[in-house]
Amino acid sequence: MAWLVTGGAGYIGSHVVRAFQAEGLDVVVLDNLSSGHESFVPTSVPFVRGDVLDGDLLLHTFHKHHVHGVVHVAGFKYAGVSVQRPLHTYEQNVTATATLLAAMSAAAIDRIVFSSSAAVYGTPHTDLVTEATAKSPESPYGESKLIGEWLLRDQAIATGLRHTSLRYFNVVGSGDLALSDTSPHNLFPLVFAALLDGRTPRINGDDYATPDGTCVRDYIHVADLALSHVAAARRLDAGNGIEAVYNLGSGDGVSVGEIMATVRRVTGIDFTPQIGSRRAGDPDRIVASGALAARDLRWSMRHTLEQMVQSAWDSSRAAAL
Q1: pLDDT band at 50 (very low <50, low <70, confident <90, very high)
Q2: Which residue among 41, 69, 102, 134 has the highest number of C-beta atoms inside a 10 angstrom radius?
Q3: What is the pTM of this model?
Q4: Of these residues, 90, 121, 141, 246, which one is catalytic?
């Protein structure tokens, strides 16, 4: 019996795969490689190249690999770009999730861990976000993730699906030199690519309603996040009680300006970032409590900000060689 990790060739998904392997759990990866890399998938893990929108392929994969649960990481994850590409975002994040759930139902697969997002909160009117904080997404991306949570909720009512949604915040760092964040939109890879090319990094906006004018977020290490996916899967396998949603938050905010200062220290490269315009759909501040996840999903901030930057910098340099 195996867990299927959709998007398992991507930056986050590949760390999830390794976390499952480290705990002796069988996994299979399905990824269309639109943003993932087949080289990120261990040779010992079955890899299916294909799309979550392909229901027939999902059913074939379920049966061939004896899948009994799904970790759904695949999706279109760029909040700013989603404002320009709303229909694409809904297709990749809503239609694909509905297709996956239909195939799971047809194959009698009754457990799923869903990759959701802090973007469901929009700009919260509270200093510390909890799972009960009002949802008010400000981008098609955030809306699509909230709809994904609703799909799981409604399917649970209809079929008894067992599920949980993990709301991610800013995922950074690396747990393996071979696994780097290659997103063309995320802060860390953009900054490191600029430094490696001898260019000055650029950040999006310094006029947010925060102490230094730059966005404030929870920054969490990808390997810590991956461990909580395993804990969620084990909880579902054991039939233990599980919350419908969990915030994987640190409880402490870090600004983009503070990130830049840490990058300067870690890399030894002195620079003053260029200031670009703010991105559509980016709220000023999101900082969340991870108390529920700490209680149930082994959630913990095991890495300091400096360790997050150092591991991300090391993997970026390794990828550039």
Answers
A1: very high
A2: 41
A3: 0.95
A4: 141
